[in-house]
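This part of the workshop introduces the protein records we will be handling. To make this concrete, we reproduce a full record directly below.
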Amino acid sequence: MTHPIAPAVEKAHTDVLSLFRKSTVGDPDGLAALCRAARDRLAALPTLDADDPSTWTSYELITVDVRTLLGFLREIDVPSSEPKRFRTLVIDVLRYLYMADRSELGEYLAKIVHTDWDRRLGESHVHTIDAVERLAACIHGRGDAKRARPVFEQILELRSAKFGDSHPSTLLAACNMGACLNQLEDFHTASQLNADTVRRCERRLGKDDPTTILAVDNLAGSLFGLGQLKMALTLYRDIHQRYRRVSGGNSLAALEAGAGIAITLHKLGDYEAARAINADLLPRFERVAGKDYTGTKNTRSRLVMNLRALGRRKEADKVHGGIPKFLPPP
């Protein structure tokens, strides 16, 4: 589903284009002034939730402007670190790129801003740490956990030193480290870290805080990797209910939690229960995030696997070719 671009974003894009049309070749001071004006114009945009796919069309246009502007700012040595609201916008753009399966571009832009902010603000500045965290997330999003691990470790050390071990941002860094260890299949180490993070998150943030739920999700992944499937299934079901309460049943977080339940059920051999969940998730993923979103593609693949495990090969072939309007009962 294609969502409309927010009017405020369209207006800002038009304004930025208008500014750069005034650029004069051979006038570096004039270009610097235009870049500052464009940077400030983008900084004035309203905040959009990068985790919500309905904003992604708007973020796609914002990203075009931010990417172009960052190139100019670097070329003429105008800081991308000012004003504060522009830094926040860039962090939101990097979050969008990670969430929307565009981590390659996210890694590229995160490197640019991290280099600039580290030089101008210092490595321990909160937004410099945010930038390197977005860099690590995008590296992780590209499936390169080995390269992401030392960056996540650096972030955890920086946040712990700056804010303390129980600060919400430190707890989030611990969650990210736990997810990275899961991807590296170091499940024993991951389970110890994730169990400890769950305890600390529940004590500081409460059970329904998004960081706490993320920590429980990571612990479920560790247990799954260790073969403790029934315990993992219990946690995935709990996570799903929490996300439904906190974010809504059609949020990406809730849909991904449902996927965790289906994956575990299939692994346990309950192919019919897994099929029923995936059949429900598939059209919902497509409505929320589109047919090319990774979650949509993965759900289709899992549904095909469920149906084939049940011996329903004709239906599996239909699903493999697209999303059917209905799936007949077994």
